[in-house]
């Protein structure tokens, strides 16, 4: 059986529909099993969001490698839009619920979930399904809709974004877990880990009017980086992002990428939306700033097919 045929058949019908992808970049992520037990990245395919996270975090030694007893954990999904889960505009609520459950079991003192939404925050939190999922698992949902939640910080390594107003929960957290949904974006071509950090800040208008890609790369240098990045690729919006126009804009891929390295995770995710990382300007810009690794072919990636 040819490698391409094996790849398509082994991940099921959801991904087979996306066989027109550029398989060169895609196969860098999924091609062969890792041999060691310490991984730079875990990539999971073929399960439900919660079950994939169980498998992925186990491969990284469990959530207790990242969350200790009594710590304050902030989970930052994409909850930007007043859209239901099948639209794929927001992070899958089943994934958020499971991450919270793992953190609670690890003995986290407090677990918060928030996002600076684009749509009305009350409707976005509710209709995304994330508010109920997070609360049911034991987390506290926090708003981010007024400026008094934010505090100005300096970004010493920035080229353009020298200052930003960052939500106080991010600044005060012991553990920051970044959980974007992978999707197309009309301005940046892709949303994943680094783009999701825009939901941490108040003053996003400056970013859009002053080289958005450079501002994304600049903010990624800020010292309060995610402890862990989990990219939700269960249902991926392939066009009309960031909020989509209908369910037909998305594709069920049943995948997930987990890494402590934002740049590596975004590099891996790019191929899943039919792009090379070089086509997404903030990725090479972040690479120039030493955010992480773009050479994912040289990383130790553990691939799990469920």
Q: Please provide the ordered H/E string of secondary-structure elements.
A: HHHEHEHEHHEEEHEEHHHEEHHE
Number of helices: 13
Distance between the termini: 20 Å
Which strand-content bin applies to the residues?
A: 15-25%
Q: What is the CATH class designation?
A: Alpha Beta
Sketch the major β-sheet. 9 strands, mixed
Oligomeric composition of the shown chains: single chain
Would you write up a description of this structure?
The protein has one domain: Rossmann fold, CATH 3.40.50.11440. The two termini are 20 Å apart. By secondary structure, it is α/β, with parallel strands linked by helices. It is 32% helix and 20% strand.
